[in-house]
Design brief:
The structure holds two protein chains of two kinds. Chain A has 15 helices and 16 strands. By secondary structure, chain A is of the alpha/beta class. Chain A folds into three domains: 14-66 and 145-337, Tubulin/FtsZ, GTPase domain (Rossmann fold, 3-Layer(aba) Sandwich); 343-485, no CATH class; 490-533. In chain A, helix 1 (13-28) packs across helix 8 and helix 7 packs across helix 13. In chain A, 50% of the residues are buried. In chain B, strands 6-11-10-7-8-9 form a six-stranded mixed beta sheet. Chain B has a three-stranded antiparallel beta sheet with strand order 3-13-16. In chain B, strands 4-12-5 form a three-stranded mixed beta sheet. In chain B, helix 2 crosses helix 4. Classes of the chains: A alpha/beta, B alpha+beta. The complex binds adenosine-5'-triphosphate (ATP) and magnesium ion (MG). Chain A: One of its GO terms (biological process) is mitochondrion organization.
Chain lengths: 540, 531
């Protein structure tokens, strides 16, 4: 089966935090063992290339955008394709060297993890790594090396600038019209597309609360106009809670404008945030039974979102049945004007140590997953859903007949595969719901720099015990999904009511000055209601 | 009120007088940063980021983008200057310098108690007079190679080494002349600038045709063909699956795959139509066939085409569709139904060149190429960027000169002549506005003065020499940057664009006036907030 490629785009700092974990997770699942080939077709998201020195490269098929000063030690071009220069050539071939004035910014120090990554085995002791303290930007825990195309730095705005913050949808929208994006960036998209033999489409992660909402939305519109392929978008909100301020309204409005726009131009989108509310503040963080994480650390929260993305996307990245997986996924969920879906995660999928799947499912109480979509609790009923389960081995399905005992009395005992049993379970527990289930044998590999967020009752294979075991977790089974169901109407409703608090845009100076009209605000609010109505059930 | 919204919100609370002082100091500050850039002896600035990214530029516009301009007034000036560049492609540095100087001069008078309103009224009188002087200095030119070489060279030599500038001058002039069609203003987009990271900048060339940064995607396709029909189209030749049918409808994945295979036939028929035309036109002749498609072409389609020796490129740039039409003739097709020979373009030679990961396709020997490509070469990204900026400036200088049908003497000659004329004119101006005219006359001299300083000469000495020489000769003179003496710009072939100078004069006056009238603007703004 030929590879069906997907191009990934990441817009904004938090999006890049998520992306970084995601690419790290993917590298940790590479299999270098020919006898045990991976079930994942890594060519879907990676490209093979060659450096000028004829070395083969395998780099993410990725374009990312961030602001000046946000990429730490990374250079825009990266160092994969050029010889490492010991000292910089501080001259120009084009001008008299006496007449050159050099301004050098202080050298950016590399985080300890990066230092360890780059040094050879002979270079002495590893530096002490403490991610929670070391990580300030996503580049501080980035494992893969990038193609020179990948990193795009916005010159007009500086990271975390207080004087000229990049905090308005329209700033991003205007930025899209500059040469850097109209020419360079669009041309990079084109160059990636040109390399693809059977491109399926695009996956876009974009910050929804700042100017990247506008930049990403404009790009999505461009992708739709220019390529007409499936676009799956994830507008994201970081999980930090700040003091109440006017800025909350900015974020709400950016998010509203973002959903309005991408709802029109992408195939499907799923908002992500570890906070329960998302707006006007992230709110209390979502709870997972066996995890402890710090919702104020982007490094932590983004790893959960990345885990969900890595798992959900397996549907269109697996080697089997790949022909039009992304368009099918979108088509399954975006019917009837339903452009948004909720994302769920079960991490780890709760396999009790020593038990089989049949018993685990039978004994399970409460929802099987946690929602990662703000202001949206996912119901099991009346939904269209696409789920991916990874890491339950066939041997954990049930006992053979002579050991089965009570298991044999359960209806599910007749199921002969994980896929079959899980499908049966979902059919029984989700009312009026259509489920597409993808099932992979291999679990999620847990490896540095994935944060250590597992409670101490988790075994190294991801099973859980009622008591502490103190093992280093090496892999975990995961269930994640996209759900299109009635609960999305609550999400739109809640965003609508928050955005409706903005009575007049004249208070929000940045918006007014950059061209938002009062009419557009009203239109945006109306559109949110239209999206909401698409989820309402008129048959009851 | 548009002007106030450009200011920092905090500024609303600054008292008006303070706001004025702030504006003046900001204007001076940004002038200090840019001063050393001006002219052919200006300083190149190299910025090395903390991670080692290098940016190098002498272009005021680029610098303004690179510097983080935090001060609202400074960023207002910066934005105005970049707007200047967007319109004419040149004159950013001069704009910043003249605004700064107008503010400095104004400061002297205001501190003596003059009302800013008097100054700005004087500025307006002076502006009108300066435009008159500028018009009188216009030198008509013909849009020919001879007529355009000097103005192009002047522009390029302010951005790159003279030896390289002289080589690129010809490349740029030839490019613009090639794309010009019967007296119409040239569309510079029809000069494609293609980058190639390779060897030295001196290898930069003009290709009379189109160069694309991609090639055929099939190993069996010819790498070089002659006498080629060129089909440019925007037709998908790849299997695409719409989102109409959801995956739920299929019982098994295998069943799904089968249905998809059926959908491919549709694409195959398109390819067959192209092949039919190719067979009709080329088989049995020495002609060949090239497809350049804006949409995708998948491997099965490529296979079919390769068997027929057809060269096929996919995902061409949208703009190249138009360029190809201009270079080769033919038109971009949105359908392959009813294709006929007249739809096709023609090129004498199409070949591929591979450099690292990138393939380049050259489409050359076109009959009358009205779209061309400048192939920029340089050893690294920042050199190429620098070269590209210079070439862009050069192209726009040529185009401006064609549109103006004129040039004006450079090397500070316009500013010097205008300054002299203003000193004479101010005698006729009554009232305190006269002081504004005087300030303006002084401020314009910042250009020749800075050119002198940047060339290592004393600004006072040079100005005196130029003024004397100009009085003696009774005509406009400029500064010789190698001797510090006066020269006749026409003799030395130093010309600037008329439209650029005009823009500089107009926008500097408006911006400086706005900055000076900040208190009035603010009061108006405040009352409108209250009312
Ligand atoms: N050979 C020369 N001798 C003297 N003066 C020159 C010469 N060439 C150009 N100049 C002068 O240099 C000035 C232009 O300098 P420069 O191009 O560096 O700045 P700019 O056009 O104001 O801004 P930008 O950075 O946008 O190009 C003009 O006043 C021009 O007349
Ligand atoms: Mg210039």
């Amino acid at each position: 089966m030929p590879t069906r490629e997907v191009l990934t785009l990441q817009f904004g700092h938090y999006s890049n935090f998520i992306g970084t974990h995601w690419w790290n997770i993917q590298e940790s699942s590479f299999s270098y063992e020919p006898k045990q080939p991976s079930e994942i077709n890594h060519d879907v998201l990676y490209r093979e290339g060659e450096t000028p020195r004829k070395e083969t490269t395998f780099t993410p098929r990725l374009l990312l955008v961030d602001l000046k000063g946000s990429v730490g030690h990374l250079t825009e071009q990266g160092n994969l394709y050029k010889a490492v220069e010991k000292s910089l050539p501080l001259h120009s071939d084009l001008w008299d060297s006496e007449n050159i004035q050099v301004t050098t910014e202080p050298v950016v120090n590399k985080a300890p993890f990066i230092q360890n990554l780059e040094k050879g085995p002979a270079d002495g002791e590893d530096a002490v790594v403490n991610f929670e303290d070391d990580v300030t930007v996503w580049a501080d825990y980035l494992v893969p090396r990038f193609h020179p195309r990948t990193v795009n730095i916005v010159r007009e705005y500086e990271h975390q600038s207080l004087d000229q913050p990049f905090n308005v949808f329209h700033y991003g929208h205007h930025l899209w019209k500059t040469e850097q994006f109209q020419e360079e960036f669009s041309n990079k998209i084109r160059a990636y597309a040109e390399e693809c033999d059977f491109m399926q489409g695009f996956q876009v992660i974009l910050d929804s609360t700042n100017g990247f909402s506008g930049l990403g939305s404009s790009c999505i519109q461009h992708l739709q106009d220019e390529y007409g392929k499936s676009i799956l978008a994830f507008p994201v909100i970081d999980g930090k809670n700040f003091n109440k301020s006017l800025n909350d309204l900015f974020k709400v409005l950016n998010t509203a404008l973002c959903y309005q726009s991408i709802g029109e131009h992408c195939s499907l989108f799923s908002p992500l945030c570890v906070g329960q509310n998302g707006w006007p503040q992230a709110g209390a963080c979502r709870q997972f039974n066996h995890l402890t994480y710090n919702s104020e650390l982007d490094y932590h929260t983004s790893s959960l979102l990345a885990t969900a993305l890595d798992t959900i996307s397996l549907r269109y990245r697996q080697k089997e049945f790949s022909t039009s997986a992304l368009s099918d996924l979108c088509a399954d969920l975006n019917k009837l004007g339903r452009r948004a879906a909720a994302t769920s995660l079960s991490l780890p999928f709760p396999m009790t140590a020593g038990q089989d799947l049949i018993d685990v499912l039978d004994d399970h109480e409460g929802p099987l997953w946690t929602s990662l979509t703000p202001s949206c609790d996912i119901s099991m009923d009346k939904s269209m859903q696409s789920l991916v389960l990874r890491g339950i081995h066939h041997e954990r399905l049930k006992r053979p007949p002579h050991e089965a005992k009570l298991q044999q009395r359960k209806a599910a005992y007749s199921c002969s595969s994980v896929h079959e049993m899980m499908t049966l379970y979902l059919a029984c527990s989700c009312h009026a719901t259509a489920t597409h289930l993808t099932n992979l044998k291999a679990p999620l590999t847990i490896k540095e720099p994935y944060p250590n967020i597992f409670n101490n009752n988790i075994h190294q294979n991801g099973d859980f015990s009622p008591w502490p075991v103190g093992e280093e977790v090496k892999s975990v089974p995961v269930l994640a999904g996209l759900h299109s169901g009635p609960s999305l109407s609550h999400m739109f409703d809640s965003l609508h009511s928050q955005a409706s608090r903005i009575k007049s845009i004249s208070k929000l100076r940045g918006f007014k000055d950059s061209g938002l009209e009062q009419d557009e605000l009203i239109e945006c609010l109306d559109q949110l209601l239209t999206y909401k109505e698409a989820y309402e059930d008129h048959y009851e | 009120m548009a002007a106030i919204s450009l200011l920092n919100p905090k500024a609303e609370f600054a008292r008006a007088a303070q706001a004025l002082a702030v504006n003046i100091s900001a204007a001076k500050g940004i002038q200090d940063v840019m001063r050393t850039n001006l002219g052919p002896k200006g300083t190149m600035k190299m910025l090395v980021s903390g991670a080692g990214d290098i940016k190098i530029t002498k272009d005021g516009n680029v610098l303004l983008h690179e510097m983080q301009i935090q001060h609202p007034t400074a960023s207002l000036i910066a934005r105005a200057s970049t707007a200047q560049d967007d319109m004419t492609g040149d004159g950013t540095t001069s704009t910043v310098l003249v605004i700064g100087e107008l503010m400095k001069q104004a400061d002297l008078y205001i501190s003596e108690g003059l009302h800013p309103r008097m100054l700005t009224e004087g500025f307006e009188l002076a502006r009108a007079k300066t435009i008159e002087v500028l018009d009188s200095l216009k030198i008509p030119i013909e849009p020919t190679k001879e007529g355009l070489m000097d103005v192009a060279k002047t522009s390029l030599r302010t951005k790159i080494h003279p030896s390289l500038a002289d080589k690129l001058t010809e490349v740029c002039v030839d490019a613009v002349l090639a794309i010009r069609q019967d007296e119409q203003p040239a569309d510079l987009h029809m000069v494609e600038i293609m980058e190639m990271q390779h060897r030295t900048a001196a290898d930069t060339t003009l290709v009379r045709g189109i160069v694309m940064d991609h090639g055929s995607r099939h190993p069996d396709m010819p790498k070089r063909v002659e006498n080629a029909y060129i089909l440019t189209c925007n037709v998908s030749l790849e299997y695409e699956k719409s989102e109409v049918n959801s995956g739920f409808f299929y019982k098994t994945a295998e069943e799904r795959e089968k249905l998809l295979a059926a959908e491919r036939e549709f694409i195959e028929n398109r390819v067959k139509k192209i092949i039919a035309l190719k067979k009709k036109l080329c088989d049995g002749t020495d002609k060949s066939f090239v497809i350049i498609n804006q949409k995708g072409i998948d491997p099965p389609s490529l296979d079919m085409l390769a068997k027929e020796n057809i060269v096929a490129l996919r995902r061409a740039k949208r703009r190249n569709m138009e360029r190809l039409g201009l270079a080769c003739g033919g038109s971009a097709m949105n359908s392959v139904d009813d294709l006929v020979e007249e739809n096709l373009g023609w090129a004498g030679l199409v070949y591929e060149h591979v450099l690292g990961e990138t393939k380049y396709t050259f489409v050359e020997d076109c009959k009358k190429p009205t779209s061309v490509t400048i192939l920029l070469k340089g050893p690294n990204k920042y050199t190429i960027t620098q070269l590209k900026d210079a070439v862009r400036d050069g192209l726009r200088a040529i185009n401006n000169a064609i549109n103006d049908r004129a040039v004006v003497p450079g090397a500070g000659a316009v500013e010097l002549a205008a300054s002299r004329a203003l000193h004479a004119y101010k005698e006729q101006v009554k009232g305190k506005q006269r002081l504004g005219v005087q300030a303006y006359a002084e401020a314009l001299l910042v250009i020749p003065k800075t050119l002198a300083v940047n060339s290592g000469f004393d600004s006072q000495d040079s100005i005196v020499k130029l003024l004397e020489e100009s009085t003696a000769l009774g005509e406009a003179v400029g500064l010789d940057v190698t001797t510090g003496e006066a020269l006749k710009p026409a003799d030395a072939g130093i010309y600037d664009n008329y439209v650029v100078k005009k823009q500089i004069i107009n926008s500097c006056t408006v911006i400086a006036s706005n900055l000076l009238l900040v208190d009035e603007i603010m009061r108006a703004g405040m009352s409108s907030l209250k009312g």
